[in-house]
Amino acid sequence: MAFPVFFDTCSIYGAGLSDLLLTLAERDVYRPLWSADVLAELRRVLLEAGITRDAVDHRISAMNDAFPDAVVSDYESLLPQMTCDANDRHVLAAAVRGGAEVVVTFNLKHFPSASLSMWNLSVVPPDDFLLDQLDLYPDSVIDAVTQVPASYEKPPVTTSEFLGLLECSGVQRFAQTVRSLV
User: Fold this and answer.
1) How many domains does the chain have?
2) Running DSSP on this structure, what letter comes out for residue 160?
3) Which terminus of the chain is more solvent-facing, meaning fewer CB atoms within 10 Å of its CB: N or C?
4) Is pLDDT of 87 > 70?
């Protein structure tokens, strides 16, 4: 079974980055995990960004349909043991309960190493995570980077445009590395 990865809301917020991460999970590169709290936060921030309720509901429903075992529950009893940033204790507790090996987040400062050491868990930014996947599964990753934009119809997106979108989403090193390979 693929190794379990917990996604903080910020790492699955951007549509292009989320599409790439979930496409890789569909290829069994890793097993995605999130919680109801993460999905509620995702719903809230997408609605605040002006995304329609129907589009938000469709996106979250599609995530849950594609990965029915991704939702981690029953982690609330772990919350008092979490010493990371108070606003992200639910993330760390759910990652621990779900048996994640890594948490993917842009909010590294919210997860100091002292708060992770007892849980045998690492926290990485999406850029590093994707570069690791590229090293481990180069064919799958390159194929996904070309497949995702090919699925976009309104408007159509080229692979080069998709890589530009990923750069704007905070995974610059990954996008630049892939750009040199395709």
Assistant:
1) 1
2) H
3) N
4) yes
